Amino acid sequence: MPMFKKVLVLEDRQEHLEFLRQALENICSDVEILTAKNIQEARQKLSKDIELYILDLELPDGAGIELIPLIRGLRSSAKVMVFTVFDEDDTFFKAMRMGIDGYVLKTETQQGLVDAINDVYKGMAALSPALARKLMNFHAASYEALPELSDKETAVLKLIAQGHTMKSAAEHLNRSIDTVKFHVKEIYRKTGAQNRSELLRLAREMGIS
């Protein structure tokens, strides 16, 4: 099956490097694997033809995710997977916000790592099971924290999210503009939004558009 042809592995421990090498060669015997043991060395090996980067988070001279902006600048379609011992919330969610394609713990089995690399190649998010649960719990908590709006407030927010002014929303709903203003005031109070941009972001999170 098609697979990554050129990979850069940023890892400073030889046993983990060999573990990664075995997984990659298990998937594709002719893959070209570049290696780096620190950020400086990795910077020198970045190139447009590298399709997958596997990054350790803690290196002698920094964190692997520092390279992500440089990687995206060279090749926006390049895949980035984190391979680390760190599963703390702050570390995990920071990496996720930077747009990584996978986050695999070093406690993962060889087959688990192979599956993760395959998933990343297919465009799927690859997460160790414990991290997948962490992400699901985060989204569940975020959903529970969303405000409850009345049907009328939801209708007004939907129109605002679609670009309506309060005047056009009032006309669309056949309500007075004062009524719509009241609903908008209540929406801001319930959501805690400070401005229109925040309100639109919350509307997207609530599935209102």
Would you give an account of this structure?
- There is one protein chain.
- This protein has 209 residues and is an alpha/beta fold.
- Helices cover 53% and strands 12% of the residues.
- Strands 2-1-3-4-5-6 form a six-stranded parallel beta sheet, sandwiched between helices.
- Helix 5 links the parallel strand 5 and strand 6.
- It is elongated.
- About 3% of the residues have low confidence.
Cα end-to-end separation: 40 Å
- Please name the fourth-level CATH homologous superfamily of the largest domain: Response regulator
CATH architecture field of the largest domain:
3-Layer(aba) Sandwich
Low-confidence segments, given as residue ranges, are 140-145
Strand % is: 5-15%
CATH class of the largest domain: Alpha Beta
How many β-strand runs? 6
